[in-house]
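Notebook entry, structure prediction.
Reason for the run: the old model in the group folder had no record of what sequence produced it. Starting over properly, with the input documented here first.
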Amino acid sequence: MRTALTALLAFAAGVLLMLGLSHHAPAGGETTVPAHAASTATPATSTPGTDEDTATDDNWPQQAPSPEQVIYSQRGMVRKALSGLGARVPGRPNLYVVAFGGDGGEDVFRNEAEYAAKLFPQRFGNSTHVMVLENNPASLEQRPLATWSNLEETLDGLAGTMKLDEDILLLYLTTHGDEDHTLLVDMDPLPLDQIGADDLADILGKHPFKWKVVVVNACYSGGFVPPLRGAGTLVITAARADRSSFGCGSDSDVTYFGKAWLVDALNRTPDFMEAFRQASGEIAQWEAKDRLTPSEPQMDVGSGIAGQLALWRRSVVPGPALAFKPAPPEHTGSAH
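New structure, fully documented this time:
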């Protein structure tokens, strides 16, 4: 079942939405908003320096649309992003990548999602199509949010676009994970549903994808392997079920696993499984040097997926390596 953070958080966020509607005006451009949101309203008042005022300012960028406007725009943003994926290339398996950056409180996850959006087409050609869902204050108008609902709607759209007996879905999720094997989905102050291992398996199980690569880059992500494993599915995780992975935090630009698998290994090989083996060795060296408890990344190969990935690689002429650069941190204006 979906679980919100807490009932109290949901109530508090609702209050913030009501108080912040007129306080947070869109920064230029054209934004589609509900009629009642566009009407004149009495600005919320608070004494400068109070906890209420500080919390609202800290949690939401001043020049962004209001939280309600962002929520209202999601369906249109998902559809627009799906329509911009480019035409399927006939006569070969195509790769459809969904990059999901779940935690809006740290730029490291957005950095990886944005890097994936550039890496896969540059390295693997025009039969590779990338969709980005991410939570970050800097991209509220550029990218759909990384939420349970947007993930489902994205997969709905891809299921109607892909050639399901031939094309491959690659889902790359990067965020924090906990010991209960739940991924953090957060764009404060919005009360977003969290995604557990069984939840993700259920979401994917509702869609008719025959060939899947699911990469979970989070602490304790090995707990996602049992519910996700199956025929036609490659599951890769950044850690075993009872171990942390490393490299997140406000001081990091990329996680250990993101650096090793996305940035290093996939710039050397188009083989996702070989990239995992290279990345695992690299991570083990870093962890030993830093005297960290080994994260022990995991891989589970379902029947048939190795052959389908090999068939996809036959038509791939790898492009040049792509240097990693953090995504721009600033709010860049309206994209509506």
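Summary: The chain has a mean pLDDT of 85.
The old model has been moved to the deprecated folder.
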